[in-house]
Structure formats: structure tokens, C-alpha cells
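Fold sample X.
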Amino acid sequence: MDSSVKRFLTEMADRAAAVAEGAKDAVAGAGKVVGEKKDAAMLRLDLLRLRSECESRFSEIGRTFYLMNAGAWPSGGETAEHRIESLLGEVGEREMQVSDILRRLSELSGKSACPSCGKPCDAGAAYCPACGKPLKG
């Protein structure tokens, strides 16, 4: 085989190897982005579920309060006050989970989270755009 042909084939093989390496890096980068998008979508689903559960608890608190004030709360079991306290505790637990999810979503988006409400904030912001609290003490 002619040396110029051999050199040409060697150069082509080197270029093909470089392109393959670039493609491998691109696929790895795309896989990372897809994984982050999937994680964010799963967190948003959890957020919707938790918020729905909170709304359900608030509805039950209202119903319990109504029955208690109407004198229609069933006697002999749990008191209305205890039930409301229990439901408020459940809401508090879910609100803590919501704050954690909002913090994690902020981290995935590259933003910081407000220490008060957990909403995402731009890095240079002095106040939270959601709750208005100062971000730096």
C-alpha cells in the first residue's frame, strides 16, 4: 500500500476515534440532563401529591370544626380538638416535606432556595420573589 494512502487511512482512523469520543461525551452529557429532568419531574409529582394531601387535611379540619360547633361531633371517640390537632400535625409534616422538595428542585435548577418559604431564587437576589423575605441576614 502506498505510504500516502496509509497516512490518509491513519488520519481518518484518528479522526473517527476523536468523533466517536466526542459522541460518547455528548451521549453521557445528554444522559445526565435526562436524568436530572426525570428527577425534577418526580419531585414535582411528589410536590403535587403532598399539596393535595395538605388540602385534604385542611378540608377535614374544616369539616371537624363545623361538626364540633354544630354539636354534631360523635361522642365516645376521639375529641374534635384532638382530631384537629392531629390533622394540623400531619399538615406540618407535609409542609416540611414540601420545603425539602422545593429546596431540591432549586438545587437541580442551579438556583438557591429561600430559607423562609423554600421557593427558588436567583443567586444575586436580595429578597425572595415569592414571600419577600430577605435572603441574606
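Fold sample Y, listed below.
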Amino acid sequence: MLLAIETLPFQTFDGLLADVLFLAACVLFGGILAFMGLNHFHDLENMAGYAELKGVPVPTVSVALFAATLALLAVSTLGWPYAIGMSVF
């Protein structure tokens, strides 16, 4: 006889290890976003040329705004664990 999913006990993943893994995930994801944002700023002319080829209006400004958005997302992702008051700090 198979157990129904509703009867299995609900297990949570709490504790210091969960906080460390969450912090590592935030640093990894925030680092990727920061790298992508800096890459957009670094290679602005080429990316604006590609955006122009695809028909994006005002390609240089659009790529720069997207790069700034990526950088802002990176900062907010890296600051998220501090904002929620994780016990790792």
C-alpha cells in the first residue's frame, strides 16, 4: 500500500546550515547579476549595435538602462540576507 502524500510529515530545513546555504545562493546569484551588469557597461558599444540591429529604439540608452537595472538587482540581492536579519551575520 502506498502512502498518500498528505500523510507524510512536513519537514522543514531550518538552522545555521540553511542560513549559510541561503547566503551562498544570494552571493552567487548577486555575483552573476553584477558580472552581467558590468559586462553590459564594458561592452556598451557592441551591445548597442546588436540592439540597433534588432530594432530597439535608442539602443545605447536602452542597453545602459538595462545594465543599471542589472547592477541594482545585484546590490539588492546581495543585501537581502542582511535586510531580513539572518543569523549568519
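Sample Y note: The helical segments are 16-42, 44-53, 59-83.
Also: The mean pLDDT is 84.
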